[in-house]
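F.,

This is the one I mentioned.
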């Protein structure tokens, strides 16, 4: 007797529909017509079923603060940092818990069950970190949350930055963050990366650095990260986020750099919604897209995943937290519109994200793994991307944590009426 069976799931475009059994929060059988009884049955009715979405890069401490105390009118990263430093002075733990919890509810409703959030630790009280550690604890039975200690104002550029960073790791942050391109000098940027790697080794943590998030083609800290990842052996425990400057590197340098990156095994996270919005702001015309070289990296087999980055905060005045929204933008901005390319973008918000977060061993619809899945109102990955499909059912460790009923629209045209069908 099983706890639950999801019947008639479409795991891939062709092939038979699959039944998925669940017992004690784990998958126990994944096959056509599973011959078993269960206390509960969910009929997926031929809908596409995927492992949960992975949010590789978000800021749950800043979320839902857009317009507080003022709006970022210029739309630049730098005015965003100024707005945030004003809002940061007003933070309380209750305030962070309330906003983060609401954003997580949105994310779960869209089928996200793994979240990596950066947390600004340039605050002597570490208010946001303490609050998010509590949120991580409360949400642990449902959603896997990783916290990156993120020195928004710099490790060397902010007084006591290195001490706060280490304190954040002692308090329980899962990964070490950084912002080398925002340190006062190139040399400080390199030094900050050495501090980050040393702390990660000392405390056995992952690394995820906001790296080269600027249109300046002279910003070249990815090369330092990949060299350190190779020399320390930390390799795929290291992630370079944003790397938007790579968009502007000359071809010869980018080609050499990508070979080094592939050799080092580091992960990349692009944030298409926020990159296309914040970058290119100092250009007249033509305006650069400011997205890192997602297409080229994917073609080389480098692990690239995607993040929403900001949801209604000083850096992005929009967003509902959906990874399909992020992937939809990626398809356009990276011009990954080939059929296999679109499929690979879908993988950037699922499997590739699991690799970035280092949770790949407990991720996927296979017997013995945690029973996490999403029934999408879609036929396959491409359909989900095109229609921004809702998550009909989200299952976390075998329990339903969100349900959405797809909208139904009726058209009244030419003297008749019928429910509309968006499938071809
Ligand atoms: Zn970020």
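My design for it:
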């Amino acid at each position: 007797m099983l706890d639950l069976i999801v019947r008639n799931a479409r795991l891939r475009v062709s092939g038979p529909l699959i039944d998925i059994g669940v017992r004690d929060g784990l998958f126990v059988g994944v096959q056509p017509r599973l011959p078993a009884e269960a206390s509960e049955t969910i009929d997926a009715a031929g809908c596409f079923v995927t492992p949960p979405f992975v949010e590789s890069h978000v800021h749950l401490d800043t979320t839902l603060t857009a317009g507080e105390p003022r709006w970022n009118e210029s739309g630049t990263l730098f005015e965003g940092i100024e707005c945030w430093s004003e809002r940061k002075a007003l933070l309380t733990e209750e305030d962070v818990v309330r906003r983060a919890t609401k954003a997580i509810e949105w994310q779960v409703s869209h089928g996200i069950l793994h979240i990596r959030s950066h947390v600004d630790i340039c605050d002597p009280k570490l208010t946001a970190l303490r609050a998010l550690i509590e949120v991580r604890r409360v949400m642990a039975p449902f959603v896997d949350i990783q916290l990156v200690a993120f020195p928004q104002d710099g490790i060397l550029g902010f007084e006591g930055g290195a001490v706060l960073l280490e304190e954040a790791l002692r308090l329980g942050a899962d990964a070490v963050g950084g912002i080398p391109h925002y340190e006062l000098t190139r040399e400080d940027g390199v030094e900050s990366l050495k501090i980050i790697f040393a702390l990660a080794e000392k405390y056995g943590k992952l690394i995820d650095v906001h790296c080269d998030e600027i249109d300046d083609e002279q910003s070249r800290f990815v090369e330092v990260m990949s060299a350190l990842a190779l020399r320390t052996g930390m390799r795929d425990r290291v992630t370079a986020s944003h790397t938007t400057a790579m968009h502007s590197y000359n071809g010869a340098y980018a080609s050499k750099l990508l070979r080094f990156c592939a050799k080092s095994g580091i992960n990349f996270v692009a944030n298409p919604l926020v990159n296309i919005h914040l970058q290119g702001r100092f250009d007249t015309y033509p305006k650069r897209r400011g997205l890192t070289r997602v297409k080229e990296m994917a073609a080389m087999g480098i692990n690239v995943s995607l993040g929403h980055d900001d949801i209604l905060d000083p850096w992005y005045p929009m967003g509902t937290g959906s990874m399909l929204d992020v992937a939809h933008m990626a398809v356009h901005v990276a011009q990954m519109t080939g059929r296999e390319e679109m499929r690979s973008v879908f993988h950037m918000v699922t499997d590739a994200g699991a690799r970035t977060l280092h949770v790949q061993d407990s991720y996927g619809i296979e017997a013995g793994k945690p029973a996490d899945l999403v029934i999408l109102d879609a036929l396959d990955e491409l359909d989900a991307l095109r229609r921004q499909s809702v998550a009909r059912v989200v299952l976390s460790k075998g329990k339903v944590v969100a349900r959405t009923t797809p909208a139904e629209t009726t058209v009244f045209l030419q003297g008749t009426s019928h429910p509309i069908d968006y499938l071809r």
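The first strand starts at residue 2 and ends at 9.

Talk soon.
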